[in-house]
Amino acid sequence: MAKEESKYGFKDRAKAEESLELLKAEDHKYQMLTVRGLIGRAKRVLTLTKAEEKVNNIKAAIETFEKWLEANNTASTKNAKPKEAEEKVETVPGLGFKDKQAAEQTLKILEGRDPDYQKLAIKGLLGSAKRVLPATKNEDKVKSIKEAMALFEDFLDLFDREERGKQNMPYLSIELIRQLPTPSQPDKLAADFLDCYETVAKGNYKHLRTKAPKDEQETWDIIRNRNLQKLKPKGDEKLFDSDGKPTETHLKLAQWAYSPQVEKLKSFAASHAKSKSNPRKRSHSTSDGEESNKSKDKHGKDQSNKKSKK
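Structure tokens predicted for AGAP011281-PA-like protein (310 residues):
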């Protein structure tokens, strides 16, 4: 059991994606049973978890597993329908493990991207390299692949020692972002990012790894992370004011699809949506009241005129 737990897990989205990648080597029935089991365990753990960040990470893992189940529930036969084209995520080009140079190029390509994705990509390449190695007969090629693997293993070791996973900045859903007020000083680049996230990526942040602004080489995921690093609050800077509204800094973070306090932001968005609809009712009732007062005033004047005539 301990061995299985080390392979599959649900601590965050990256671990869930890694688990699904590992499960590809198993038969379909085993995959389904394992994923359902992981979802059940994750939901039980969720009820005992208090830290907001951990709760969000586990929820992201559950969402990943549930999406996989939905897509693979009927995929037990070879004739199962493929996923819709818009759901397919393009692979980041240039990643490889054929030699040390390819590994170095891979690490360079991954710089600035989401830490969870960096780890997932490197683990995936390591797994592929290990599968290719036994079938490779040429000694020079074997040596080259092993050199690449050594670089990847060093990267993963450093990644864990420096706890880079904690630097990951999960994406807010486009639906939540659109419910929030915009910053008083809008950022055009952030607006372009949101437009791409909503229209081109269709709300799937994974597509942003291969989408870039016009005439730019860097993809949106890298641009997002760099801008968030500049905006991230330092020290005890508050992200909500005394009225419970997100601060200007917080709204700017949200424009890049990130918030350190997601649940509180969701609560605000819900109340903000209600407050936007309520003024209409108040305005309508006020208008009715004004009409009523006018009618009364007119009626009062009529009565007064009648008395004066008498």
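DSSP finds twelve helices and no strands in the chain.
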